[in-house]
Recover the amino acids of this structure.
DNA sequence: TTAGTATATGAACAGTTATTCATATATTGA
DNA sequence: TCAATATATGAATAACTGTTCATATACTAA
């Protein structure tokens, strides 16, 4: 491989791409965030939290699985700022971090023709 | 675990969550799409293609790595409708599937305070 | 058809990740 | 303080995924 019929335009695009490529740290941050929301078990938690904030017990009730597994998933979502937590007595109450999360989910579903 | 201080509201939310949970197929489709865009090597391809369509040679030039690795990544992105391809002579020219892709990337970067 | 170029792909290995199990921490009420 | 409840977490294993290497396919030009 060496060139193509659009050598000039593509080469310029490639050059611009290298110059405008986000730095490694930004790439890793975005990567980790998408990875956080890309697992079926965690996606279910997000879809569940669209209905409103919930404590762990009720998240388990909503999505199934064990308390331990859900807790591990919650930590990953929380570490990536997809959800937020507040303590309320003995419980930790989780909710979606902000409106960006819902927006991304809805964009994806629109794009893929999924009804949610 | 059995209940919490917000038993009623959370239980209702959990019930609504179960009732409104997308079916397994939709969950898997969304999951696969986010998984596709959640790998640093593939994210780089997407950021590169923001500059315009490119053939494989120039994508390799833009993001680095081997032709084989890039080809494998392109297939995953294509299978998940994140990018689209058209043949142009000996070359396959790739581009972002539609404006949803850019929108999702920008939402994520806004959310995470990354400049792109 | 043959040679050359561009791209794709199967298999294997290495690295990553989700779940389970056991246990730890934190809060509440007695 | 102690017991009970809610949640979190470390370690281990099993499943998954990205890359590499070798090779295959597809197109072009001669």
């Amino acid at each position: 491989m060496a060139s193509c019929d659009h050598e000039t335009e593509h080469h310029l695009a490639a050059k611009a791409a290298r110059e405008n490529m986000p730095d490694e740290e930004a790439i890793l941050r975005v990567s980790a965030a998408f990875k956080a929301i890309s697992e079926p078990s965690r996606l279910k938690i997000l879809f569940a939290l669209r209905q409103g904030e919930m404590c762990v017990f009720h998240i388990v009730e909503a999505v199934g699985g064990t308390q331990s597994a859900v807790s591990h998933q919650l930590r990953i979502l929380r570490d990536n700022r997809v959800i937020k937590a507040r303590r309320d007595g003995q419980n930790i109450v989780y909710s979606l971090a902000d409106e960006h999360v819902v927006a991304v989910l809805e964009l994806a579903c629109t794009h893929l023709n999924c009804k949610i």
